[in-house]
Amino acid sequence: MFGKGLLTGLGITFKRMVGPNITEFYPEQKPNLPIRVRSSMGLEREKCISCNMCAMACPNGVIKLTSEKDETTNKKVLKSYQMDVGRCLFCGMCAEVCPTKALTVTQEYENSVFEPGDMQWDMIKRAERKGKVG
Amino acid sequence: METLSKPMETFDNLFLIIAHFIRGLFADPQSVWANLTMSIINFIIVVVIVVLAALILILLERKVAGWTSQRPGPNRLGPRGWFQTIADALKLMGKEDITPAGADKFIFKVAPMIIFALPMMTLAVIPYGNGLAPINLDLGIFYFLAISAISTVAFIMAGWGSNNKYSLLGGMRAVAQMISYEIPLLFSLLGVVMITQSFNLGVIVEAQKNIPFILLQPLAFVIYIIAGMAELNRAPFDLVEADQEVVAGPFTEYSGLRWGLFFLGEYGNMTAVSALAATVFLGGWQGPAILPGFVWFWLKVGIIIFFIMWARWTFPRIRIDHLMHLAWKVLLPLSILNIFLTGLGIYIYRLVMGG
Q1: What is the pLDDT of residues A109-123, one digit of tens each?
Q2: Most exposed among A16, A94, A129, B92, judged by the fewest C-beta atoms under 10 Å?
Q3: Is A113 assigned to a binding site?
Q4: What is the pTM of this model?
Q5: Is A94 marked within a binding site?
Q6: Is the ipTM of this complex over 0.85?
Q7: Domain count, chain A
Q8: Which residue on chain B is closest to A2 by alpha carbon?
Q9: Of A9, A20, A22, which has the smallest distance from its Cβ to B314's Cβ?
Q10: Could you give the CA distance from residue B292 to residue B279 in angstroms, rounded to a whole number?
């Protein structure tokens, strides 16, 4: 029949019209991320042994950490842990190489900032803000 | 007034009763001054209809566009985004009004005003209910088509006045397309005129008391809707403002409120074409007495408008040679065939009924 395609098309769009929306209302409704998503980093300070392997493994030199030797226990204690997230790939190599699993890849994703300086993450402060410091 | 005893009848004649009351305020209800006052009130009502139609339809268009692509459409301002058009209108008013340096200034400025004025003139002859035509014109259909044909001139004025090659191309496309589709549009209405023996839209609606003309003239209705969509320059016939080909056609150089007037005019014209289709083919304000006449009328107009939007968001744009082919080689012969069959039908009917 002439014009059959037109009617089929109208039928398809009508089905779409009365069917459900596939839109995700993002700010009100948080998305369910796939389990492999790598979008942020987290540090557990008490697990860290300041071995510097994460800084060595990083392909972009993102991680800078300093440590101090504790005189009584003769162990290194983490003093500062800086990440220049602007250069971070979230490749996860640092977390992969960490011997105590102190550094982990997390799935927080609302990471945008207003100032370039805000991309220098102080991981210890971030961990304190999350209430994860022991 | 005995009509007050029946609430539905009162509601049906609500506007007539109000008009009667306003006329009653004058010493002589049929004096010149009373007529002038009623004319001004009618004019204001038609303007309100055009502006309201644009406000509602712009949002509805975006909603339909969203629904067809499984989105919710605008959903930020107001309940479910229903106040979005108000924000858009305010934004348009706040924009800078630019006239290009090389433009033909008078023609450039007058074109959007003409486009905006036309739907007000055409909507004035539509009967919105029993005896509710703002102007009860004997040559209603004729006047309607003659006035709506002027928009062609406005498009070429906008295209020429902008002094921009895309605008001129769009304007020339508008002339080619709208002149071509005027003919099937006109011929499709001729069948109805032959049956009713009248150009008066009120008489045509009265004649559909028992059976709406869409059942007697299905072919004419299809031709009218297709030609009407082309006349409105809406997708799939939006070659005039085809963004991918001629930027925005005649509207390229317009900004702010002038562009807004074009938009108002487009949606006003859409209302007018749908109103004529509802009046001529779907029985206008006639309908079962469960609802008042003007509600039936707007319901039918709404259905046609929804269909036009639905078609717009379904079909891709037609090619310009296919467009001309469709008008001259398909729609025109079909509409002439329709006239011929209608004449034959009327002849046979008279023969059988002994008229």
Answers
A1: 888 889 888 888 888
A2: A129
A3: no
A4: 0.80
A5: yes
A6: no
A7: 1
A8: B330
A9: A9
A10: 15
